[in-house]
């Protein structure tokens, strides 16, 4: 019988796209040569809250409740951290993203949540901070509030540190300290780490900077980032971001990954090699950089927004391999439970990936009440064989996988065509898809438009 992990270190690079990892010349030699990886892994959600909640519960967003419209995980659901505690692990979260904390209930089960913005000094200047504060609607409101003028900074504003500067080294140091503290007591731990370097605005330097030369290009880049974070196209019906700037923004994430990748590889090697630790590294969700007319990650179910890298470095060793079966990253929950001897209802991406049917869903983003009616729809997307099947506004659409290059667009299927029937799905797979679709429809019907 395989031994249980000594410690478990689960690291997520927030928003990191699959192609940012695999189409980049900067690789992770240790991770790639010592892991099980996935070529067709999909997140269940398209932004941090639903995607992380799915990994923490093993459920779809409409099941756990943490979506763009319903903003908190259901209190009765057992979380991954709670399951790890039951298995005898002390549990810790070290995060650079406020979305993974108590605000939405994702802190539940952790003995301690270390918010990295509370533990590091600011390394950026006042102008950089002003740009970020002005860029996000919620923070703009605080910028001109009485509280801010009186220097009573909220935690929300303090999180700007993680938007403006590298914090990965500080997070890795916290993980080392936690392991050392537990080992000194003869105890084992489960640690969840969230890194923000690959999240908007995509850290291309130790503190915020533009990636293009020339004053006008720099202005365009900042202007584009402003409209990206504000989802302006949902209010205007078209994007104010010039076509030539979309690849610039997309390349920001690739640049951020090129800086982060060697550090992640070194940290994973340190945590894994000869330690008896289980080390997992991946992404919670991706981004949409123009795919299917979406920019940024709210409300889309594109491959760019959902296809994610994931690497599982087993505590018992074993040769590296690639799993090419399409899997849902919500089932990493079951994978963790099985290796620590906890009961797991449902498939594991490690132990029976062929039973992990990837389905993604998204729920329309309100955008301060200004979202246009034509964007007020929810979406569900199934991956079956080598195609994606999208349910939007009660109509089904179809598109191939996006392996390289431009992502194929969804084409609407004929009236009354149901892919469940067209694909001749049978047995357990048919039953699972039908349940997800029906539950999604029921959940969506309760969301006010």
Task: Please sum up the structure shown.
Helices cover 35% and strands 15% of the residues.
Q: For the report, how would you describe the main beta sheet?
A: 8 strands, mixed
* Termini gap: 53 Å
Number of DSSP E strands: 15
CATH class division: Alpha Beta
General description of the model:
With 449 residues, the chain is an alpha/beta fold. The protein has a single domain, classed as Alkaline Phosphatase, subunit A (3-Layer(aba) Sandwich). The protein has helices spanning 18-22, 29-33, 48-57, 61-64, 80-86, 126-135, 137-143, 146-149, 155-158, 160-164, 168-184, 215-229, 233-236, 246-272, 303-306, 332-339, 419-422, 427-445, and strands at 8-13, 36-38, 41-42, 90-95, 112-115, 189-195, 278-282, 310-313, 321-323, 327-328, 359-362, 379-384, 387-392, 395-400, 411-412. The strands form three sheets. The chain has an eight-stranded mixed beta sheet with strand order 5-4-6-1-7-8-2-9, sandwiched between helices. A five-stranded antiparallel beta sheet has the order 11-12-13-14-15, covered by helices on one side. Strand 13 and strand 14 form a beta hairpin. The longest helix is centred in the middle third of the chain and has 27 residues, at 246-272.
Any key phrases for this structure?
Alkaline Phosphatase, subunit A, 449 residues, globular, alpha/beta, 8-stranded mixed sheet, single chain
């Amino acid at each position: 019988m395989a031994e249980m992990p000594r410690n478990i270190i689960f690291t997520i690079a927030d928003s990191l796209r699959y192609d940012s990892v695999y189409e980049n010349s900067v690789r992770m030699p240790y991770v790639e040569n010592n892991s099980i990886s996935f070529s067709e892994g999909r997140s269940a959600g398209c932004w941090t809250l639903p995607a992380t909640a799915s990994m923490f519960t093993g459920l779809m967003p409409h099941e756990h409740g943490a979506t763009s419209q319903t903003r908190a995980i259901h209190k009765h659901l057992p979380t991954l951290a709670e399951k790890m505690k039951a298995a005898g692990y002390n549990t810790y979260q070290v995060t650079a993203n406020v979305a993974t904390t108590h605000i939405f209930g994702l802190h539940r089960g952790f003995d301690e949540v270390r918010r990295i913005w509370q533990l590091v000094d600011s390394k950026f200047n006042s102008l950089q901070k002003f740009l970020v504060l002005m860029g996000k609607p919620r923070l703009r409101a605080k910028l001109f509030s009485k509280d801010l003028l009186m220097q009573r900074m909220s935690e929300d504003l303090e999180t700007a540190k993680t938007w403006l500067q590298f914090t990965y080294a500080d997070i890795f140091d916290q993980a080392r300290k936690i392991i050392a503290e537990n080992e000194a007591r003869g105890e084992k731990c489960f640690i969840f780490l969230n890194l923000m370097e690959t999240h908007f605005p995509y850290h291309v330097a130790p503190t915020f900077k533009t990636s293009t030369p020339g004053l006008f290009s720099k202005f365009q880049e900042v202007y584009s980032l402003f409209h990206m974070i504000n989802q302006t196209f949902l209010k205007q019906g078209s994007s104010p971001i010039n076509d030539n700037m979309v690849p610039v923004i997309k390349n920001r994430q690739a640049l951020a990954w090129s800086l982060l990748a060697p550090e992640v590889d070194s940290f994973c090697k340190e945590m894994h090699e000869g330690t008896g630790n289980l080390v997992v590294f991946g992404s919670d969700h991706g981004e949409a950089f123009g795919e299917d007319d979406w920019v940024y990650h709210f409300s889309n179910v594109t491959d760019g927004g959902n296809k994610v890298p994931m690497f599982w470095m087993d505590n018992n060793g074993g040769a590296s391999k690639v799993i090419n079966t399409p899997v849902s990253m919500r089932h990493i929950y079951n994978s963790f439970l099985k290796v620590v001897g906890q009961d797991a209802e449902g498939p594991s991406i490690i132990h029976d990936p062929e039973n992990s049917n990837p389905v993604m869903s998204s729920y329309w983003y309100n955008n301060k009440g200004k979202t246009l009616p034509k964007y007020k729809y929810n979406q569900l997307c199934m991956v079956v064989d080598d195609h994606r099947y999208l349910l939007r506004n009660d109509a089904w659409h179809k598109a191939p996988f996006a392996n390289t290059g431009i992502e194929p667009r969804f084409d609407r299927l004929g009236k009354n065509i149901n892919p469940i029937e067209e694909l001749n799905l049978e047995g357990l797979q048919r039953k699972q898809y039908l349940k997800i679709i029906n539950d999604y429809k029921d959940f969506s019907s309760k969301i006010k438009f």
